[in-house]
Amino acid sequence: MARSGHRKATGRPSIKNTARTTLLYETATLTMSRKLCIMNAAKDNSINYSLDTYFPGISGAPRKTAWKRIYRWEKYRSSIEAAANKPNLQFMKSIRPLRTSTTLDTAAEEGLVAWVNELRSEGIPVSNMLLQTSAREVANDLGLTESQFRAGSTWVKSFLNRWSLSMRSKTSAGQSSAEEGEAMLTQLADKIRRIVDTNGIELIYNAD
Asked: What are the extents of the domains in the chain?
């Protein structure tokens, strides 16, 4: 008796008896080399020729949207052309200069790194919240509004990666006695007081 093939897996049955929504892939992101080909076709022939060749079958609003995209790319022809002619960039779908989304410049971030290292050298742990507060103060000094720079969790993660920092602080195993805890608290308070006096700090935030 001939052996029949395995039945194709049907997957987990739908409890609600509804079919899965079909992906439409309506938004197509094009590479730099592809954009340049489309732009050149519009330039050497016509915009309609380019649309019919690279966006066949579209009409109405989608065709108008594609038409606008081609004209928008044309404004950045020099950048797109340069990227399309480089082997390491021609297949990229977007390009932007390094550190474009950082907002704070390198000098400002270097100041934050120095501040973090100084506090750590004094035995003071720096939390994410304390770093965010300090970063917002620096941004405010640079004339940036809160809407322009929020110092959110994404920025904190990127900042730590850029400068190879970690917010993890060392912990001691076991429990300390009440006397040892009071002594450590007094020592920490003295260190903070010296830092405040040395740097002329007037406003202190509680990072708890």
From this structure: 32-84, 102-168+177-199
